[in-house]
Amino acid sequence: MANTSGLRSPPTPRSEVSSPRPSFDSELLKAYMKKLLSTTLSSSLWPEPKDRDRVRRWMKEIGDRVKDRMLEIQPKGFKYVVLTQVNENLGQGGRADMVCHWEDTDTVAQEVYVNDSLICICIALAIRSF
Question: Annotated region Disordered: where (predicted)?
Answer without folding.
Answer: 1-23
